[in-house]
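Q: Sequence in, structure out?
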Amino acid sequence: MKKLFMTRSRAVAYLLNTRRAMPEEIGGLRVIDAESQMHTLEAAERLILDVRSGRKSQFSVIFPEEIAVFITDP
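A: Exactly. Output:
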């Protein structure tokens, strides 16, 4: 797992780019797969809000690659 240190604004930008890269189409998925995809998207959006508001000072993601991010802002 890669470890990255970045500012809060850079971490939010990284998460927003990652969120945009996630597929949103659920029309052709089975119900169980669509539900899983919806939970993943909701978790990504919650993480963006938590990092932006300062509730998180570190996080890890596995999409598009497995990394751990540490926020360097006080």
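The mean pLDDT is 87.
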